[in-house]
User: What shape does this take?
Amino acid sequence: PVFVSTVPKSGTHLLKNILFKIFGPKVILPGWLSWDFMNEEKLFNATAYSNRIYLGHIFYSHRLERKLRKFPKILLMRDPRAHIVSYSHQYDRGHIPEKIADDFRSLPNWDTKLSAMTYGLQGDNPGSRILSVQDKYQKTTLSWMKSENVRPLKFENLVGDAFGGSDQKAIDEICELMKFIGIEPDRAHLE
Assistant: This one.
């Protein structure tokens, strides 16, 4: 098995689509993105892992790290500035947990909304909280960096020419990713 932890709004769907193209949809778990499926408790309590790619926002815990230590782990990250803007747009368009929706929408302007995403926001309702960018990165990727068998992956290296990146760099990154998980890449097929 391979475990892929991503920061929300860091290119999870892009990476999922790349992995689908390489390995096929039956290899990726879950086949849809499900916050609930990939939670720490369910992964920790699993008695065995199938030979699949487990993809999601996998929050770090010491006990889960010990259990997954020997398995390859890929950590998808994005430039935090782009992450903040992307997440703020998502929330501004209404894709936001109900507990925090009113608090976020009541912020007076775009700068205040960006600050809330950057530094976090504790809402008026019980349990209504936006994690700061630092907290999100700490929980989903940075803490995993201390573990064995870790391969960081930058979103910016996966986007091609059409989206301001480099097709060549994206292919190089995918080839390195495949080697990391023990698969010899067919570069001609990727190009």
